[in-house]
Design a protein that fits this description.
By secondary structure, the protein is an alpha/beta fold. It contains eight helices and eleven strands. The protein folds into two domains: 73 residues, no CATH class; 174 residues, Rossmann fold, CATH 3.40.50.150. The chain binds zinc ion (ZN). Zinc ion binds next to loops.
């Protein structure tokens, strides 16, 4: 599936295939090294949670239990002891908004494209602060948030600049944006290893070519954020999601935590030159 789509970061139209996920090519830009999928998905990414009602029995483990350590660490590090308003963009089922709203002194809001997900948050979690539809149409007042979060959202966006630029207008002058996204430097090696060991098997997670349209490194994510008007981009480390691809296997979880802790150590020792963790980016306006 060739594409002449210009690179998101440098507008170069030359790129080479670095992976093929079934029929979909994953490219690396010849100009700046940015990695992206040839797949052209729904630009608003509205159908992630399907069209029908969501079963809480199937969602609780992954979206709440497995994410809890990561959410708790974020709240302890960035919200505890302060007061303010937080907005979670791509709030999904609302579990993070629920977490943040329990931190004393914080008012937590959300924005989510999927109507069934917003209905779930309202009916099951009792959250009335998540607005359905595009963030740009949600009517939040400019300069009204102290913290805006994007948990596993930016990799799904065909045009992250449009959303990030709007997010910038919603932040107060001393507010910050926080993002979590996979690290392409690690994911690409893992996908190639899986292919070498097991071949291409349907149902196996490689690079999720139909969902993850842009795959970032510290270098390219920093560049996207600076391009959208953010400053002082820093990469930090939080505990990872406590599951590997939805599995409850404690050995896999142990391995994942070990990887995350070793990556944080290596990042510190190399002064940011080698970061093999998922990307946790903190960016401010000035
Ligand atoms: Zn490029």
């Amino acid at each position: 599936m060739p594409t002449d789509r210009p690179c998101l970061l440098c507008a170069n139209t030359r790129h080479r295939v670095v992976f093929r996920e079934f029929e979909i090519d994953i490219f690396r830009c010849a100009g700046c090294g940015h990695v992206f999928s040839a797949f052209e998905g729904d630009p608003n990414y509205a159908s992630y949670f399907g069209d029908g009602p969501i079963d809480p029995g199937e969602t609780q483990f992954w979206w709440n239990d497995a994410h809890r350590a990561m959410y708790d660490a974020f709240c302890a590090r960035y919200l505890a002891g302060k007061t303010g308003r937080l907005l979670d963009v791509g709030a999904g089922l609302g579990y993070f908004v629920q977490h943040a709203s329990r931190v004393p002194g914080w008012e937590a809001h959300g924005s989510e494209m999927s109507k069934p997900a917003v209905d779930f948050a309202q009916k099951r979690l009792g959250l009335s602060t998540i607005r359905a539809g595009r963030l740009q149409d949600a009517g939040f007042a400019p300069g009204s948030f102290d913290a805006i979060t994007l948990w596993d959202v930016v990799e799904h966006l065909a045009d992250p600049a449009a959303l990030l630029t709007h997010i910038r207008t919603l932040l107060r002058q001393n507010g910050f944006l926080f993002l979590h996204t996979p690290n392409v430097d690690v994911q690409l090696v893992k996908a190639k290893l899986k292919r070498a060991l097991k071949g291409m098997r349907p149902g196996t997670h490689y690079l999720e070519a139909k969902d993850h349209l842009h795959l970032y490194s510290t270098k390219t994510l920093r560049r996207v954020l600076i391009k959208a008007g953010f400053a002082r981009v820093r990469f930090v480390h939080l505990p990872p999601i406590q599951s590997v691809a939805g599995s409850r296997n404690p050995l896999l979880r142990f391995g994942k935590n070990g990887w995350s802790q070793t990556s944080a150590l290596l990042d510190g020792l190399t002064l940011g030159a080698i970061n093999l963790d998922n990307l946790f980016a903190h960016a401010s306006l000035s």
